[in-house]
Design a protein that fits this description.
Mean pLDDT: 82
Number of helices: 18
Low-confidence stretches: 1-10, 12-20, 260-265
Number of strands: 0
Order of helices and strands: HHHHHHHHHHHHHHHHHH
Length: about 425
């Protein structure tokens, strides 16, 4: 009886430490990486569901709440940011941005846009990723966040009616917003077969399909194979999870048939039914034009931003700021090489790949290794087929998280 009371007291103390720990603020700030859009959307939609005219006061309130949370973690994040790499990266970027700007000063407003987007929207996440210390708590918060993202999506679709599924409104933003939930449910299934995880994953995959985005489905499939092979010791989980994934694939196939029968339109349904799932003429042309530009200036690159001006012209569009912003290679390797040339790009990727390999060779913590794999798949893999690293905060969080994990390995070995 005494032992039972002591155990209960210890568990209560642990729970108090978890919720009162200053590390929680850092982790909650990190969680904003994947939940910020969902939090703002569900808060604003809830208010506007009852009050028609809010004069954006609701947006101001939620931003103030989020800002107060960031302030709570700011000191710790700043104190943990003293690392030569975390200062060298923005310095190199700034040098190449200024170099490109001075050559093409007539597009000053475009370069100001890139500067603000990079330094205020993307770069700060490098330091957040570098400041994580309580990885177990982060793992728990990511699990809750996965359900929050899914619930927010369901409310936005069924209750608030802010999402519209049709062929014209291809909703890539929402599809990629669901991607972390898909990967996290798969991650949990690789450890333990649970009907709750299966149900959550099934819903996420079906909604991603209906939203019309191929990228998140492809990334989810590759992640499933990767993490199952990584955790291969549990053969029962591997068999059951593989069976579930096959059943889900058949379920989506029958869903396509059902939706077509009722004349439901989706970009992905059109691609699938016309056997064009992996075909995209504009994307292929964009890749080809990017490669041609790289071959013309392969060693030093064009500087940050000038590649978009050249691609806008190559794709046959007028040189306006709105057009320039939208034309980039849609591949992180091509974009980096266009910006910094072969030499710097090679050293950049070689440096971080060596860090990852070092971590997996020396690390014995499965939770950390699974989390790193999770962030690689949400922070790097989408950049192989979509988006720009300059406007992708998750990429910079991943870089900071890699530096964080490998630094801790050094310290633990001394």
């Amino acid at each position: 009886m005494i032992y039972h009371n002591q155990l209960t007291q210890q568990n209560t103390t642990k729970r108090k430490l978890y919720f009162s720990s200053k590390e929680t603020y850092v982790n909650l700030t990190a969680i904003l990486l994947i939940t910020l859009s969902s939090i703002i959307n569900i808060f604003n939609s809830s208010i506007r569901f009852f009050i028609e005219r809010t004069y954006r006061i609701d947006t101001l309130i939620i931003y103030l709440i989020i800002f107060s949370l960031i302030i709570k973690s700011f000191e710790r994040i700043v104190n943990r940011s003293f690392n030569i790499t975390t200062y060298l990266l923005p310095l190199i970027f700034l040098i190449y941005l200024i170099y490109s700007l001075l050559e093409h000063i007539e597009f000053e407003s475009f370069y100001v846009y890139l500067f603000i987007n990079f330094f205020f929207n993307s770069l700060p996440w490098l330091y957040v990723g570098n400041s994580i210390r309580d990885h177990d708590s982060l793992n728990k918060l990511l699990y809750y966040s996965s359900w929050f993202i899914l619930v927010e999506f369901l409310l936005s679709f069924y209750v608030f009616k802010t999402i519209n599924f049709n062929l014209v409104n291809y909703n890539q933003e929402y599809a990629y917003r669901l991607l972390p939930a898909s990967l996290f449910f798969i991650k949990n299934l690789s450890r333990k077969i649970n009907l709750v995880y299966i149900f959550g994953l099934f819903l996420v995959l079906v909604f991603i399909f209906i939203l019309g985005a191929r990228g998140p489905l492809l990334i989810s499939g590759i992640f499933f194979i990767t993490i199952m092979v990584k955790n291969k010791r549990n053969l029962i989980n591997l068999f059951v999870s593989s069976f579930f994934y096959i059943i889900t694939s058949f379920g989506i196939f029958f869903l396509i048939t059902f939706l077509i029968r009722f004349n439901f339109q989706s970009r992905l349904i059109e691609f699938t039914t016309t056997v064009n799932f992996f075909s995209d003429e504009n994307r292929i042309k964009l890749f080809n034009e990017s490669i041609k530009l790289i071959l013309k200036s392969s060693l030093l690159g064009y500087g940050v931003g000038y590649d978009r001006i050249l691609l806008t012209t190559s794709m046959g569009y007028e040189l306006t700021v709105s057009n320039i912003i939208g034309w980039y290679p849609h591949n992180v390797f091509l974009e980096f090489t266009l910006h910094f040339g072969f030499i710097l790009s090679f050293f950049f990727f070689a440096f971080f790949i060596s860090k990852i390999l070092k971590f997996y060779v020396n690390n014995s913590d499965k939770n950390k290794s699974d989390l790193l794999l999770f962030f690689i798949f949400i922070g790097f893999f989408p950049l192989l087929i979509s988006s720009s690293y300059l406007q992708y905060p998750t990429f910079f969080f991943l870089l900071g998280y890699i530096l964080n994990l490998t630094r801790n390995l050094k310290r633990s070995s001394i």
